[in-house]
Design goal:
The chain is α/β, with parallel strands linked by helices. The protein folds into two domains: 121 residues, Rossmann fold; 96 residues, 3-Layer(aba) Sandwich (Rossmann fold). The strands form two sheets. It has a four-stranded parallel beta sheet, with helices on both faces. Strand 7, helix 7 and strand 8 form a beta-alpha-beta unit. The longest helix is centred in the last third of the chain and has 22 residues.
């Protein structure tokens, strides 16, 4: 049963012309709903897909909803989280009280999701010490986002992998294929590519092409249970002060 005092969770996805993107977002949201049936969860897209974020917010306001937690479906804090999404939320109906959460990454749960995808692709925990991993992200022109990816790669290396190298599908270097070659040169027995992306699309396809020389290519994070748990962690962190404000 839903708690009438709980803010509505609005998951904000980028959107894509690739239909796999929206399908994956909806699958993730369904998993979130299954984990927390007490929370109303809606999905809005910034571009290409419907419903749009403004449309979702206007509909909620028309229903009489008061409190909304807006969650950017993003792995790093870059342009969309810093500028795009705040601008859209700033134009929301004035009756809505909206709190924007932090982006999903970094999080230990996301590292667990990455390992889940690698094991689903054929690796085992016994392979870790002999396997080099390419942490392949979409890329960004934001130095903060690039630095975060590099730090995640360093942190992940300490969990037992032979080596971990960051790579980017756009806007930054190295590319996936370059990182694969570097890991080969280091003497790793196997090389695996782990896409640090949430849904299929143009840039994940570029990552896949760059992984042609690797032994293993994992799937995108998608609706992994760990990703759904991160969404709920971000939601709970944002809703607590909102509930306190209304005395719920």
């Amino acid at each position: 049963m839903r708690n009438r005092f709980s803010p509505v969770l609005v998951v904000i996805a980028h959107g894509s012309r690739d239909p796999r993107h929206a399908a994956t977002v909806h699958a993730l949201v369904r998993r979130v709903r299954s984990l927390r049936p007490d929370v109303r969860v809606e999905t809005g897209f910034l571009d290409f897909n419907i419903p749009s974020v403004p449309g979702v917010l206007e509909s909620l306001a028309a229903e009489g909803v008061r409190d909304v937690v807006a969650l950017p479906l993003l792995l790093t804090r870059a342009f969309h989280a810093k500028a795009d999404i705040p601008a859209v939320l700033g134009d929301a109906p004035p009756r809505l009280r909206i709190r924007q959460t932090e982006v999903l990454g970094p999080s230990p749960l996301l590292l667990s999701a990455l390992e889940r995808r690698l094991y689903e692709a054929g690796l085992t925990p016994a392979d870790k010490s002999s396997t080099g991993v390419v942490l392949a992200s979409a890329g960004s022109t934001d130095p903060e986002a690039i630095a975060v990816i590099a730090e995640i790669a360093r942190e992940w290396r300490h969990t037992g992998w032979c080596a971990v190298r960051p790579a980017f599908a756009s806007a930054a270097l190295p590319r996936t294929e370059d990182a694969v070659r570097e890991l080969r040169s280091l003497g790793c027995s196997k090389v695996a590519v782990a896409p640090y992306v949430l849904a299929p699309g143009f840039l994940p396809d570029r990552i896949a092409r760059g992984a042609a020389g690797a032994d293993v290519l994992a799937d995108v994070l998608g609706p992994a249970p760990e990703v759904a748990r991160v969404l709920l962690e971000r939601y709970d962190a944002a809703r607590t002060p909102m509930l306190a404000a209304v005395g719920a």
